[in-house]
């Protein structure tokens, strides 16, 4: 069955199971961090700053991380990365449960996790090809995205319920425990069944980075969707950073309502994952990316004018579906187009364009929202996406 073709690989089945459990914890932590920041500060500037801290390291270290992913054994690298991420979750849980947490500590712990994830994303994205090979990479990208967004559906809901009854610290503790499952899955993999990793020659780091950037710029099939995804990251994702303010101020909600709202965006994304999992090849995918970038803009505008939660949740479903199609579609094109020896660097450029630019948008959005309000700020981002989707070159 085409939908699950990557499951014929034992290592991918292990990876899928471990990641599904670990990502649930990560999304729980992300939701709880946002709500705890708002609860402690009631400041859109702090919301923007924490979102900025968690992702700006990707912009700074992302390209270097791609070189690392091309030069070392990716499985070993991913194991080390998960240990550092678990360490951060343990510290965050301890400080919160003992009542020592404050906004500056959240900021610096988010910054640390951002550095960890700067190395994590390129390594994990590149590792998909090592597990399933080129023939199944499109399906693997979609299935991997499905567990990301499945966790995005369930994680915030669970986080909202746990935070409401036991406090945010318990969410962080659950996340720390969840890393045990992904570490176990990685350590149980059969290394002899991995596809050979083509190692990049050990020249200078700067030369390696320039080679990756030059390849992307000179490859039209990659350059065009990457530009659109970068616009979406800057303008179309600002609602994520500002959603706690919308929920708290406009609707008088709590962590529980925030959890359901964030999950609705994840549900939309999960719907897109099913489509990409059964789709063959990348023909026509750029046109689909353009369409959904424009639709993401429409979704953001609807979020900004939502009068109640019943209107907000369908708007977030649209936004989540559209954003997924832009990001996962770009990922699929880049994975299938890049040569094996460039894959770590190519995926690091993908990571920088999406996760690295997102904090820039979040920081700007936080400042703008403190002046004109969160709804109008989200609407501005939506208008930018709508224009870019319609002006993208065919």
Can you walk me through this structure?
The protein has 394 residues and is mainly alpha-helical. It has one domain: MFS general substrate transporter like domains (Growth Hormone, Chain: A). 83% of the residues lie in helices and 0% in strands. It contains 15 helices and no strands. The longest helix is centred in the first third of the chain and has 32 residues. The chain starts with 9 loop residues before the first helix and ends with a helix. The model has no long low-confidence stretch (mean pLDDT 87).
Q: Helicity level, as a percent range?
A: over 70%
Q: What is the top-level CATH class?
A: Mainly Alpha
Taken from the alpha-carbon principal axes, the silhouette is globular
Q: State mean pLDDT (0 to 100 scale).
A: 87
Q: Count the DSSP helices.
A: 15
- Give the strand content: under 5%
Main sheet characteristics: none
String of helices and strands: HHHHHHHHHHHHHHH
Radius of gyration: 20 Å
CATH level 3 topology: Growth Hormone, Chain: A
Number of domains: 1
> How far apart, in Å, are the first and last alpha carbons?
33 Å
**CATH H-level superfamily title:** MFS general substrate transporter like domains
Helical/strand content category: mainly alpha
Low-confidence runs of at least 5 consecutive residues: none
Number of strands: 0
Q: What would you say the CATH architecture is?
A: Up-down Bundle
């Amino acid at each position: 069955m085409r939908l699950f073709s990557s499951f014929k690989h034992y290592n991918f089945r292990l990876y899928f199971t471990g990641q599904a459990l670990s990502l649930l914890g990560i999304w729980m932590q992300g939701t709880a961090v946002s709500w705890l920041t708002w609860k402690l500060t009631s400041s859109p500037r702090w919301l923007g700053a924490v979102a900025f801290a968690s992702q700006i390291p990707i912009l700074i270290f992302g390209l270097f991380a791609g070189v690392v992913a091309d030069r070392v054994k990716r499985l070993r690298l991913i194991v080390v990365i998960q240990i550092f991420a678990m360490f951060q979750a343990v510290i965050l849980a301890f400080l919160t449960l003992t009542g020592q947490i404050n906004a500056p500590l959240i900021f610096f712990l988010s910054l640390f996790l951002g550095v960890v994830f700067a190395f994590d994303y390129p390594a994990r994205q590149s590792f998909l090809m090592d597990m399933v090979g080129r023939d199944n990479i499109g399906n693997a990208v979609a299935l991997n995205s499905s567990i990301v967004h499945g966790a995005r559906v369930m994680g915030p809901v669970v986080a909202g319920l746990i935070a409401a009854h036991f406090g945010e610290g318990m969410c962080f503790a659950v996340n720390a425990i969840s890393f045990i499952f992904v570490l176990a899955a990685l350590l149980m993999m059969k290394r002899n069944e991995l596809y050979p990793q083509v190692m990049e020659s050990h020249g200078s780091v700067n030369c390696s980075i320039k080679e990756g950037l030059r390849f992307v710029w000179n490859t039209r099939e990659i350059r065009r969707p990457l530009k659109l995804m970068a616009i979406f990251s800057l303008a179309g994702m600002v609602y994520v950073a500002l959603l706690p303010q919308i929920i708290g101020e406009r609707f008088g909600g709590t962590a529980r309502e925030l959890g359901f709202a964030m999950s609705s965006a994840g549900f939309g994304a999960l719907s897109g994952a099913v489509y990409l999992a059964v789709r063959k090849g990348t023909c026509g995918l750029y046109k689909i990316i353009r369409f959904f970038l424009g639709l993401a803009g429409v979704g953001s505008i609807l979020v900004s004018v939502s009068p109640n939660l019943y209107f907000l949740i369908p708007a977030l479903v649209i936004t989540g579906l559209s954003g997924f199609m832009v990001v996962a579609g770009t990922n699929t094109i880049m994975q299938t187009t890049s040569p094996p020896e460039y894959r770590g660097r190519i995926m690091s450029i993908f990571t920088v364009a999406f996760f690295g630019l997102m904090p820039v948008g979040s920081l700007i959005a936080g400042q703008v929202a403190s002046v004109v309000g969160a709804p109008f700020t989200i609407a501005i981002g939506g208008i930018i996406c709508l224009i870019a989707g319609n002006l993208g070159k065919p």
